[in-house]
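Lecture 7 notes: from sequence to structure.
We start with the chain below.
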Amino acid sequence: TSSHDEGDVVVVDYKSLTDDNTTNKTTEETSSSSLLIVNICYLALLAICGAGCRIVLAQFFGDECANPGTVGWLSAGSPLCITADGAYVSREGNMVFVDLPANMIGSFLMGLLQTTSSLGLIGGNQPIAWLKASSPFQKYTSLHLAFRTGFCGSLTTFSSWNSAMVVTLFGTSSGEQHTVATCLFRALFGYIIGMETALGSYVFGKKVAEWIYYKFVSPEMYQEAVAIYNMEDKGVYINPNLPTFERRFLVRIDNISETTTTDDSMDRTEKLHSWRQSTEDVRRIGHADIQYLNEIEETLLLNNNSNKVSKELEEIAIDRGWDITSLLSYSTSSKNKQLLMNNASSSSLSPMFAIVLLVLTYALLLLGLTSISHEESSYHETYRTMIYAVMLAPPGALLRW
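Predicted structure tokens for the same chain:
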């Protein structure tokens, strides 16, 4: 905008103001469109990779066992037969099916790729919990989406599992008869095995991510997590979303080194101390006013562009006797407000590069399909099936997203 003083008259260039607003709106729309293109392309690429991995795992754990010599890359190898005869479901029906390893690996990776907030970890708001906050990969949110929804979603196959369980329930052979109770028993345990292995793998992935975070990424946070657990056991409420210093200071976690070593001046700390004293009785689990307290503190201590709260919250604070003036003063004078990791931009990923990469991938797949389209051996039939499967994986991943 352009404005200047001429005596007592303030001249504002409204045309320039309007042009700037229009430019900002256009830039936001362009950025949003670019992000959508990047998301779609990388989601499709990782879905292709996930579907390919699932097919390879199914071949390794069953297809070559059921039909020896049909999987070229395994013909001279030693496949692991996860079912009795290697088939997806045998004549009598199996409680375990060949895609079980793929489901377990995919579920484990889903748990491993969780954010710190979804895992309930103390400190920071990292998109990938087991990576350091300074890791360049943390800001590539499009790749996070692609790995979680595209790769893991295509690697797991719960539709095949359900189909296998239906075949187990009703049977595939007319030569050998089984009672309804036997088939029902097998299908029931098949569902239990499938659910428990997937859920257990997911929980195990989350626990591994949590262990890496506390062991290697932020070891000092483990001490705080123990202290917080003990304080919450006594009924003290702690807001894990607040910045590290303020979170520890407001609930008097004095045994953590970072709490006492800070560059803040004594005057600023006194202002935060005054706010703490006026709100100490509210910091109890289940207190009726805790939601207002959280909203005020998160607005002033987390929002980097805000140094004020709504009129309604301010009136509530005054009515409750909270020293909101001290908190406002502390917030205004703070020079080191933490930047939220979830504001990281994916703009560094080029839409054009993503499009070219996806087009080249499909071109290579089509070239491979063309080169074996006229061959009729079992090897080539297997490879054609693999190529068709991975080419059709992206639409399913995009629909799932």
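Points to note: The two ends are 41 Å apart (CA to CA). The chain has a mean pLDDT of 80.
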